[in-house]
Every structure is written in C-alpha cells, then in structure tokens.
Amino acid sequence: MVDKKYLFLSGVIIVFIALLVVTLIFSPKIIKPVDKEDLPKTCEGQCNGVVSCLEQCANVKSNLATLNEDVTACDEIQDPLKAEECRRNVGLKKAIVAEDSSQCIDENCRNAVLLSKAISTKDKILCEQITIEAMKSDCLKLV
Fold first, then answer.
1. Angle at the Cα of 26 (from 25 to 31), degrees rounded to 5?
2. Which backbone phi and psi does 17 adopt, to 5 degrees?
3. Which of 14, 22, 53, 84 could crosslink 47 through cysteines, CB 3.0-4.6 Å?
C-alpha cells in the first residue's frame, strides 16, 4: 500500500510538471516596448527633487570629471557651488599631474602642486615656496 501512495504522488507531480512546461512553452510572449520619454535621462531626473540624492549625483559627476580630467563634465552639475568646486578639482589634478602650478587658479592649488612636486623630488626649496604655513610645515617634515 505504501508503494501505491508514492507511485500515485509521483504521477501527480509528473503530470503537474508536464502541464507547467506545456503552459510555459505555448504561452504568448508579451513584450511591452518602453518609450524613451518614460525613462529618466539623468541622475537628477531619478532623484525626484530629493536633496541628498541630488548631492550624490553632483558628487559622482564631480568625481568622474576629476578622474577623467574633463572639466566639461562639471557643467552638467546643477548646483553652481558644486560645479565650481568640480572645476577647481579638475584643474588641481591637471596641474599636479603636469607639475605645473601656472595652470592653477588659486593659491591652494599652487601650494598643492608645490607640495606634490617637493615630495616627489625631495626638494626642500620647493617647500619653502609654499605660502600656507601648515602645508609648508608638513612639506618640510615629509621631505
């Protein structure tokens, strides 16, 4: 009697699986096309005005712009202060990579380029040219 029970249950399971497979094979495939207008086109468009989300979008864009040394990407940042910070960061990276402080637009950038160059060349004379005292002190300790 036990064998008949298992045999019956096995048969029911096999029939159920067969029906499921047949249903899946012959069911119509409905694919709804997505209109491009339905998709948010930008990071900001996906934020729905949430300030923290908008800030994260600006940070991501700024980081990518700096990484790629692409100041034009900063123009996509909606917050004018963050966009300007992005431009400074891109300029700073370009100046440090080129070891050329003439590319800088502010004192902090010029000092950072001098610090970077002083450390890489171990030249204390460059440290002496730094105008921010805390940075100059750190430079002299590191070189």
1. 90
2. -65, -40
3. 53
